[in-house]
Amino acid sequence: MATRMIIINGGSSSGKSGIVRCLQAVLPDPWLAFGVDSFVDAMPARMQASDAGIEIAADGGVSIGADFRALEAAWMEGVVAMARAGARVIIDDVFLGGASSQQRWQKALSELDVLWVGVRCESTVAAGREVARGDRVQGMAASQADVVHDGVIYDLEVDTTHTESLVCARTIAACVS
Amino acid sequence: MATRMIIINGGSSSGKSGIVRCLQAVLPDPWLAFGVDSFVDAMPARMQASDAGIEIAADGGVSIGADFRALEAAWMEGVVAMARAGARVIIDDVFLGGASSQQRWQKALSELDVLWVGVRCESTVAAGREVARGDRVQGMAASQADVVHDGVIYDLEVDTTHTESLVCARTIAACVS
Amino acid sequence: MATRMIIINGGSSSGKSGIVRCLQAVLPDPWLAFGVDSFVDAMPARMQASDAGIEIAADGGVSIGADFRALEAAWMEGVVAMARAGARVIIDDVFLGGASSQQRWQKALSELDVLWVGVRCESTVAAGREVARGDRVQGMAASQADVVHDGVIYDLEVDTTHTESLVCARTIAACVS
Amino acid sequence: MATRMIIINGGSSSGKSGIVRCLQAVLPDPWLAFGVDSFVDAMPARMQASDAGIEIAADGGVSIGADFRALEAAWMEGVVAMARAGARVIIDDVFLGGASSQQRWQKALSELDVLWVGVRCESTVAAGREVARGDRVQGMAASQADVVHDGVIYDLEVDTTHTESLVCARTIAACVS
């Protein structure tokens, strides 16, 4: 069966966005890319720093509220509906809840054919890239590096610690059926 | 019946994005905002300047290809699915095809309750704001100002020529049931 | 004597940036544009939210530290040196200290020929545009609207409350010798 | 004598910006960062795609016009004046003219104490990172990778092919006196 969605999970500054752009470049068909960042951008500004929405503490800790979860569930169903309607869709997400985050996607996916990809990056390297980006709260990379993979089951994993985004993307593309 | 979607149509630099952010601020419930810009951002980079995707000429003319239309149809279905799943959704779009663009949305919407909003702005004023933005190809505002409203039927229209975004947003919010 | 610099002062969300881009478009010679935003972008990330640098409170209040002032003085001298070396330079600034901010520029300017421009915008209108922008802390526009003009002497003032950026820019351009 | 400026030269997508942000983070004093990108942003929009300004061809080739060169000379003098006035300044530049680009800086610098840094990156790796960034014309990285270093004399060189930005930054910081 043809892969309709690729869901990529990894901590902040692990290199997901770069891999997604490379995937869009190397895959012959046009794939749409969405992710937790574009979802947060779609929320009202007041939810982007609130108890009900998403809050990023000075140490990089991330809190998610009830309104965020409710909108996220609807957003997930919509993204899956795009794939059912014929689009190929790449998602990059940060599974703050590990296995329970994956289950939220699985509930929306039902029987749709998905390729699950884990993006690893050594915590200290990711923390260094966070400094190099300059647009993230320091500490997110280190605090998320391991916890987001907790109990998650993948079809394949890539590691950006010593491997370029484009090379990781080619490895993933080879698994797309 | 409660309004599940607000679809806002207007030419480039007519002030849609500002109205959307104000709507998100004044509406008491959290609304998600998507639009043609976020859709184009989701496409592969190579489609953002190609015959198959979207192409913006030096004079600001916009051409849309077959791949763009196919992905757009799936994207529309997905966005509508988000609203059916319980999210409130605001869309800002540029109906380059006028009435035929509206029909594409209506096909995806089926019986969902939508508020259709037209955003007008005098062509010369929109062209001036295009200069002030500095990030758009000159000429888009003028070439789109009228054609995008051709044959489109609205629940209400606002005009940003002499009215601030926040005031327009309050007028729209008053029509949300 | 030919105008070498245009210094534009106004509160947050009063419309300075739009006027600057329009000025660059309508002035026949090429003018370089710098401002307090590009200066803050040039600082280390850690100074962009600290006692020693610049700090923006939850209510939009802005605090400036000693390191910021020292770097700013050197930056002002450098920008003036660009103008002395033959570049035409537009600056947009927020005179949080009113007349004392203007004096800091005058110290760096010595006898260079400058056009001083004040940008006014009614506080409630600026606050509404702050909501429409969506990328500023709410409250900055209102808190800065009047105080930045306190004791400042201008060659001309424009008011964006009811006048488009491009029209304001043409008024300013007519005063450039 | 204390280092007043660090001038970093490398091709597009060689990793200069990441190194600059890491340098700002690891150096104990506050350093201001400017570069060819912030200079181009300061130019009128019409010069950002013109014969007189800067033009980027579909293959990533970059052409520089006479107006660009004139403004650049004044900008260089101003940046050096900032350093003379007491600021510490990091510049990232792309020496399209190799040694002749370095001479333009030397003319402005006179006797100011500068640390010259070359940033190398294998052409194919830089080209891959260009794909991962997604915001650059494909081909710039490969076409600039070697030519920008032609005849340029450095105090030290770093290579981002297999070394993280933060590690490169620490190597550079150790040479700052």
User: How much strand content do the residues of chain A show?
Assistant: 15-25%
Q: What's the shape of chain A?
A: globular
SS summary, helix count of chain A: 7
Oligomer: homotetramer
Please give the largest β-sheet of chain A: 5 strands, parallel
State Rg of chain A.
16 Å
Order of strands, main sheet of chain A, comes to 2-5-1-6-7
Number of strands of chain A: 7
Class of secondary structure makeup of chain A: alpha/beta
What's the rounded overall pLDDT mean of chain A?
A: 95
Unreliable sequence segments of chain A = none
How helix-rich are the residues of chain A, as a percent range?
A: 40-55%
What is the ordering of alpha helices and beta strands of chain A? Answer: EHEHEEHEHEHHEH
The greatest interface here is: A-B, 35 and 36 residues
Amino-to-carboxy terminus distance of chain A: 7 Å
Topology:
The structure is a homotetramer of 177-residue chains.
Chain A: E1 5-10, H1 16-26, E2 31-35, H2 36-42, E3 54-56, E4 62-64, H3 66-84, E5 88-93, H4 99-109, E6 114-120, H5 123-133, H6 140-144, E7 156-159, H7 165-173
Parallel strand pairs in A: 1-5, 1-6, 2-5, 6-7
Antiparallel strand pairs in A: 3-4
Helix pairs in contact in A: 1-7, 3-4
Note down, in words, how this protein is organized.
Four copies of one chain form a homotetramer. Chain A has 177 residues and is an alpha/beta fold. In chain A, 41% of the residues lie in helices and 19% in strands. Chain A is built from seven helices and seven strands. In chain A, the strands form two sheets. In chain A, strands 2-5-1-6-7 form a five-stranded parallel beta sheet, with helices on both faces. The first copy, chain A, has a two-stranded antiparallel sheet with strand order 3-4. In chain A, helix 1 packs across helix 7 and helix 3 crosses helix 4. The termini of chain A are close together. The model of chain A has no long low-confidence stretch (mean pLDDT 95). Chains B and C meet through helix 1, helix 5 and helix 7 of B and helix 1, helix 5 and helix 7 of C.
